[in-house]
Amino acid sequence: MGYATDVENIKLQNNIEQNFYLNSSVLEGGNVIVTSFLRATSTRRTPTPVTIIKKEELFRGVSSNLIDALSKVPGVSQISTGPAISKPVIRGLGYNRVVVMHDGIRQEGQQWGDEHGIEIDEYSIDRIELVKGPGSLMYGTDGIAGVLNFISPKAPPVGQIKTQLTSNYQSNNNLIGYSLSNAGNKKGIQWLGRFSNKFAGNYQNKYDGKVYNSGFQEYNGSLFLGITKKWGYSHLNLSSFNSSLNMVEGDRDGLGQFVFATPDGSGSTKEVSASSTDLSGYKIGFPHQEVYHLRVLSNNYFILRKGTINLDLGFQNNKRKEFGDVLNPNDMALFFDLNTFNYNLRYNLEELKGWETSFGASGMQQNNYNKGLEFLIPEYNLFDIGGFVFIQKTFNKITLAGGLRFDNRNISTCLLYTSDAADE
Q1: Which of the four, 33, 77, 121, 401, has the lowest number of CB atoms within 10 Å?
Q2: Is the separation of the CB atoms in 251 and 262 below 8 Å?
Q3: How many domains does the chain have?
Q4: Looking at the domain assignment, is residue 140 inside a domain?
Q5: Using one digit for the tens of pLDDT, what is the confidence trace for 25-37?
């Protein structure tokens, strides 16, 4: 696998020595390999229903973000509070009942709120594996509705270097997006760097025309470094997601025109009707939110004499700031600062007479801080750990799988004291 076929005719008249040199070749397999399962397997053999969505399918339709594109898949819908904020819903369940995985690590942002989307660069995804139904055994107790596994592109074959530019434009909100990447593989040393930018103005519909303060801007960057040897591989992923999202309030004047607050010059505000100039362009107005998501991920795979080990370690920092005061534009009404450390450890025993066994542990340590002027949820500390055993057996054309999992989660919330309460 991975090399072109070499055919030579040899006449064996005497004792001779013949050397064969194979050339690398990219092969397109007939079956899609599913990695959301504990062991890589083809779609026809996995005992869990898995739907594969390739990158080409995501860009066939018109969408303004990754979840919006995914909502075209049967069984998947979305909760959207704007063109840049979409949350996945599987079989009527969403929020914390859907586990979102990104390259083997749970994506941890502010999943509990309507106004919090999924902080993943849509240009950096090669395919998505959708696991419908309970995913508790493999991903924890949160996977009640299902699991979305977002997978980044792999590095090219050995000896190749590729540079790619992807762009798109949408006329409704004048969305402009582009992504520039460079990837290569030199003697097992792999890399993939990417920079993406996307910005959009106010969208429009037949009822409202252009909707004031509905645009957004997004800047993302990522870097992948990896090494692959006979002992396995080790990958390091660094990514930064940064977006500024306008929030639609929908206030109107007596003529049905959108209105917004602006300083009146005397320390107060006044309402003015949005003009055609206000409705055009790519301005970030009030209220709006700024979302930053930093992720550091280490994926490791070790080949032993009897079995293999998977070790995934990740750190994520999610910041969500909301600005709503025109007179004090730098005041943050809300500021959530979420830190998460994820870990997955799995030992895969070698196959024995059709039996495949894996066991391991996974979980996370999470800390949430409130640094704004308002408070929606308390500060808290969370510790989650779970252990599992998974067994799979193949009988000719039948594959049976099952296992056990135990999870323990401890959440400790912090008391909140306002300035008045503290004085008392």
Answers
A1: 33
A2: no
A3: 1
A4: yes
A5: 765 555 566 666 6
